[in-house]
Amino acid sequence: MTGRDNENLNKKYLEYVDSLSPPTSHFKNCLRAFGVGGLICCVGEFFRVVLRDVFLLTGDELAGTVSITLIFLGTLLTGFGVYDRIGRHAGAGSIVPITGFANSVASPAIEFKTEGMVYGLAAKMFIVCGPSLVFGVVSGTVVGLVYWLIAL
């Protein structure tokens, strides 16, 4: 097969795929992603205001409690299958906030739990979040070492 035949074959394949793919409305998808992502952030802001005004939390305690609450809700909704439906509707709007990270950790763990606690639940949980955890640990260590060297 020559290069020209290969190009024609690729072109025909792409035309075939385009004929089967449903048309997408980019503006509508962006609007839904913006709306759902904003709604998730508004829920987080609601928890921040309630925790600040009712429970009188401030600073790091407030930020940590809001983060933990949103992670818990994202994981809970993933366990009940609700977050996947939100993701199908909102697309990237459900991935960006902290709840999307919780979903990306919980989904593989739930999906592969039948493979056992170690090879299924524990190993698959870190497939998506593993690189970001490694980066966070390594960069935190480097920053800590720099501060330690400066303090000497």
Average of per-residue pLDDT values: 84
Return the structural class: mainly alpha
Task: Give the radius of gyration.
Answer: 22 Å
The unreliable regions are none
Shape: extended
Sheet with most strands: none
Give the number of helices: 6
Helix-strand pattern? HHHHHH
End-to-end Cα distance: 67 Å
Which strand-content bin applies to the residues? under 5%
Number of strands: 0
Fraction of residues in helices? over 70%
What does this protein structure show overall?
With 152 residues, the protein is mainly α. The protein has a domain at 23-111. The chain has 6 helices and no strands. The protein has helices spanning 3-20, 26-53, 59-79, 82-90, 98-111, 117-151. The protein is extended. The termini are far apart.
Detail the topology: elements first, then pairings.
Blueprint: H1 3-20, H2 26-53, H3 59-79, H4 82-90, H5 98-111, H6 117-151
Helix pairs in contact: 2-3, 3-5, 5-6
Descriptive terms for the model:
152 residues, mainly alpha, single chain, 6 helices
In short:
The chain has 152 residues and is mainly alpha-helical.
